[in-house]
From TrEMBL:
Pfam families assigned: ChlI, Mg_chelatase, Mg_chelatase_C
UniProt domain AAA+ ATPase: residue ranges: 222-402
The organism's taxonomic lineage, starting at the top: Bacteria, Pseudomonadati, Pseudomonadota, Betaproteobacteria, Burkholderiales
Similarity annotation: Belongs to the Mg-chelatase subunits D/I family. ComM subfamily.
Keyword Thylakoid: no
Record protein name field: YifB family Mg chelatase-like AAA ATPase
InterPro entries: AAA+_ATPase (IPR003593), CHLI-like (IPR045006), MCM_dom (IPR001208), Mg_chelat-rel (IPR004482), Mg_chelat-rel_C (IPR025158), Mg_chelatse_chII-like_cat_dom (IPR000523), P-loop_NTPase (IPR027417), Ribosomal_Su5_D2-typ_SF (IPR020568)
SUPFAM superfamilies: P-loop containing nucleoside triphosphate hydrolases, Ribosomal protein S5 domain 2-like
MF-aspect GO terms: ATP binding; DNA binding
Keywords, ordered alphabetically: ATP-binding, Nucleotide-binding
Annotated SMART domains: AAA
Length: 512
């Protein structure tokens, strides 16, 4: 047979579109053509495939004209994932393996020059796409990638360590001759999730800072975003790094979504399966680094923090365009990357924890003298736009602690105790409305808030006096609902609204 078709997948965002690798071998001037909107990494597969076949003791048709088409032609392809299907197509088209036996399998894997298979990016996303499409194909992947793909319930995944292991499975056999069982080089993967053995930093390490600890608890219980404002060394980063431990454990579906995004970026590790991600990009990160982009589009830090925490330290130091890119996902929980040729959508339901100093020198409002002029302070705080600040639910002061207080203070309450209260509050919210309080919108919020008449009047007066926007008023109402859930109170009382109001004071009032 001079024509062979091998099935594979291309990654475009979180989608894994089906790709048919068509290989045709014919007489003519010896050459190796690769077509089908392949980028440089894919075109380099010609040399990898040639060397892998020769070094594995297989025959490469040097004296033939080889044409490889990656269909559909308008779908962009990147990476080395097509090395294995191209090599198998060449072998099947030159009748070294049985082309008919390849039916029912999909292949992905990068070839080394010796024929060994190397992991590919996005194996988990590929496996999830197969399951979503209802396909019954077996997915053949290299070691490292196969373990990822096998995390998906119901997946049919095979791990192949070397090109020769795959060739042995599909060699031509006489009629009635059984297929080889295969050894460690060809192994059917059992679907099972590894045991989670990770630990988060303990909140007990934080001494004092009762107000900030309370704000962390409220944010974790209701899914709210949080801004910590305080001088250098007050413990803002320490608090933020312990926030993920207060959140409830990830469910299987959430863990798969988070792991699939990490797999797309090449960051997934089995030992982190089920762990809530905490992404903390440097303040020099660009808008594209946060949002995602490229061709084909890849997820940014916002999507990599899906079902986890996005910690932005030194918030005013981030480029203005990068900060403004946070506004849409904070509202919708999704990021849409639109390009001239293609449009991709990534999930981005994260909890924002931001930290900043009150002024350029950092000492405004503390015992140490501030050397910044009012204009410098205003310019520094003005780097965070009003619309972005309006979308952050809790604005909290983290004051500096003197040495005596720090050394004599006992250890704080441990993470486990605070997490238990947060999970109980979340369970109350989910039992009542089926979602966390931060996700309430419109009529749902009006129905579930359950304000007492006195609390409603108090909130109305506070909103009028402080000149809040409608968004700010609704966010205070959501925070008050979370505070009531933490107190196991069905209605929202005045005391709950009063506490929530204290978390909308804004940057300027916190600094004074």
């Amino acid at each position: 047979m001079s024509l062979c078709l091998v099935q594979s997948r291309a990654l475009v965002g979180l989608e894994a579109a089906a790709v048919t690798v068509e290989v045709h071998i014919a007489n003519g001037l010896p050459n190796f053509f690769l077509v089908g909107l392949a980028d440089t990494e894919v075109k380099e597969a010609r040399e990898r495939v040639r060397s892998a076949l020769v070094n594995s003791g297989l025959e490469f048709p040097h004296n033939k004209r080889i044409t490889v088409n990656l269909a559909p032609a308008d779908l962009p392809k990147d990476g080395g994932r097509f090395d294995l299907p191209i090599a198998l197509g060449v072998l099947a088209a030159s009748e070294q393996i049985d082309a008919a036996a390849l039916a029912g399998y999909e292949f992905a894997g990068e070839l080394s020059l010796s024929g060994a298979l190397r992991p590919v990016r996005g194996a988990l996303a590929t496996s999830m796409a197969l399951q979503a499409a209802g396909a019954r194909s077996r997915l053949v992947l290299p070691p490292g990638s196969a373990e990822e793909a096998a995390l998906v319930p119901g997946a049919h995944v095979v791990r192949a360590a070397h090109l020769l292991d795959v060739v042995a499975k599909f060699q031509r056999r006489a009629a009635g001759e059984p297929a080889p069982e295969g050894g460690e080089g060809w192994k059917e993967m059992a679907v099972s999730a590894p045991c989670a053995s990770f630990t988060y930093p303990d909140l007990a390490d934080v001494k004092g800072q009762a107000g900030a600890r309370r704000a962390l608890e409220i944010a974790a219980a209701g899914g709210h975003s949080l801004l910590l404002v305080g001088p250098p060394g007050a413990g803002k980063s320490m608090l933020a790094q312990r926030f993920a431990g207060l959140l409830p454990p990830l469910g299987v579906k959430e863990a798969l979504e988070s792991a699939a995004l990490a797999s797309l970026a090449g960051r997934f590790a089995l030992e982190h399966w089920g762990q809530r991600p905490t992404c903390s990009p440097h303040h020099s990160a660009s808008a594209v680094a946060l949002v995602g982009g490229g061709s084909p589009p890849r997820p940014g830090e916002i999507s990599l923090a899906h079902h986890g925490v996005l910690f932005l330290d030194e918030l005013p130091e981030f480029p203005r365009a990068a900060l403004e890119a946070l506004r849409e996902p904070l509202e919708t929980g999704r990021i849409t990357i639109a390009r001239a040729a293609r449009r991709s959508e990534f999930p981005g339901r994260f909890q924002l924890v931001a930290a900043m100093n009150p002024c350029p020198c950092g000492w405004l409002g503390s015992a140490r003298a501030c050397r910044c002029s009012p204009e410098q302070v205003a310019r520094y705080q003005g780097r965070i736009s009003g619309p972005l600040l309006d979308r952050i639910d809790l604005h909290v002061e983290v004051p500096a602690m003197d040495a005596a207080e720090l050394l004599e203070a006992p250890a704080g309450e441990p993470t486990a105790a605070v997490q238990a209260r947060c999970m109980a509050a979340r369970e109350r919210a989910c039992a009542r409305q089926g979602k966390e309080n931060q996700a309430l919108q419109g009529v749902e919020l009006d129905a579930q808030a359950r304000l007492t008449p006195a609390a409603s009047e108090f909130l109305r007066l506070a909103a009028a006096r402080l000149q809040w926007s409608a968004r700010s008023t609704h966010r205070v109402l959501k925070v008050a609902r979370t505070i009531a859930d933490l107190a196991a109170s069905a209605p929202v009382e005045v005391v709950h609204v009063a506490e929530a109001v204290q978390y909308r004071r804004g940057i300027a009032s916190l600094a004074t």
